[in-house]
Design a protein that fits this description.
It contains 2 helices and 7 strands; from the N terminus they run βαβββαβββ. The protein is an alpha/beta fold. The chain has 2 domains: 1-44, no CATH class; 52-113, Signal recognition particle alu RNA binding heterodimer, srp9/1 (2-Layer Sandwich). The strands form 2 sheets. A 4-stranded mixed beta sheet has the order 4-7-6-5, covered by helices on one side. The protein has a 3-stranded mixed beta sheet with strand order 1-3-2. A hairpin with an 8-residue loop joins β2 and β3. The protein is globular, with a radius of gyration of 15 Å. It starts with 5 loop residues before the first strand and ends with a strand.
Length: 113
């Protein structure tokens, strides 16, 4: 039986990062094909750059200009929800098709990939 995976993110305000309770909140894929993101309240603030971060697949199957356009659209949507855009990295094939670095409202970095 495959093991389910949950990704836990420590934060000061779980409700700002997921739409549920404020001591602990979660974002779950209805199809259950990807891990659940679990946000739990902690007392200490974020101190430095994340050593582990999320890559959110926002443009699967797309390349070049179409890929970056899709990533830009998703970045703009996330900014309206409280995220901050940090950097855009242009495609550098074969390893990187381009990505956008973002941060959630508490400064935790993630990439739109």
């Amino acid at each position: 039986m495959p093991r389910e995976v949950q990704i836990t993110i420590d934060c000061a305000d779980p409700a700002a990062l997921a739409e549920h309770h404020n001591d602990a909140s979660a974002v779950t894929d209805p199809s259950r094909t990807v891990p659940r993101l679990y946000f739990q309240r902690v007392a200490e603030p974020k101190q430095a750059k994340n050593r582990v971060h999320l890559d959110l697949r926002a443009a699967p199957g797309l390349e070049g200009k179409a890929r970056m356009t899709a990533l830009e659209g998703e970045a703009a949507r996330l900014v309206t929800l409280g995220a901050t855009r940090l950097a855009r990295h242009e495609p550098a094939l074969p390893l990187d098709g381009g990505h956008i670095v973002m941060a959630d409202p508490e400064g935790n970095e993630f990439c739109l990939d």
